[in-house]
Amino acid sequence: MSDPLPHTRGAFPHARASGDLIHISGTSARKFDDTVEGVDVGDDGMVRLDPVIQSRAVLANVERILTDHGLDRGDLVDVMAFLVDMGHFDAWNEAWAESFTGREAPARTTVAVRALPHPHLLIEVKATARLRNEG
Fold first, then answer.
1. pTM of the model
2. How far apart are CA 58 and CA 126, in angstroms?
3. Residue 82 to residue 6: CA distance in whole angstroms
4. Phi first, then psi: what are they for 29, rounded to 5°?
């Protein structure tokens, strides 16, 4: 079993089913211990944020939510990504391509936002997946 997901930062679930869809709330690279993947604090005290590592971690967290519902990335039908800097678009695309190589990718929208709930977060994703019909 994988590590538990971090608690949401509000009164909402990680995901909610409606009909034959599951809607995944905004998900980031935050870990259960409330640290963020892709953050390195150097000996000089400088904080360095890695958009590729964060993008991979976000997609891994989405997959963990899907797994909790008996699904995987192949069940995604729509993904919306929020980047705090469109300069990270190539990093997001790199992680995306790794995640969907050899499988059909869902529809996707990427937009820039002014900020996310924590200053170390570079990306947040919300997604929709189709539940499997276990006829």
1. 0.89
2. 10
3. 19
4. -90, 15
- If residue 55 lies in a helix (H) or strand (E), which one and from where to where? helix 51-68
Ordered structural domains, the chain, with CATH: 15-130 (3.30.1330.40)
Cα–Cα separations (whole angstroms), residue 50 to 1, 30, 38, 106, 116: 27, 13, 5, 24, 15
Residue 112 exposure: Cα atoms within 13 Å on the Cβ side: 6
Q: Profile the chain (135 residues) by mean pLDDT over runs of 10 residues.
A: 60 84 95 90 94 97 94 96 98 96 92 96 98 73
Q: Which residues pair with 48 in a beta bridge?
A: 40
Residue type, 102: G
CA 34 to chain centroid, in Å, comes to 15
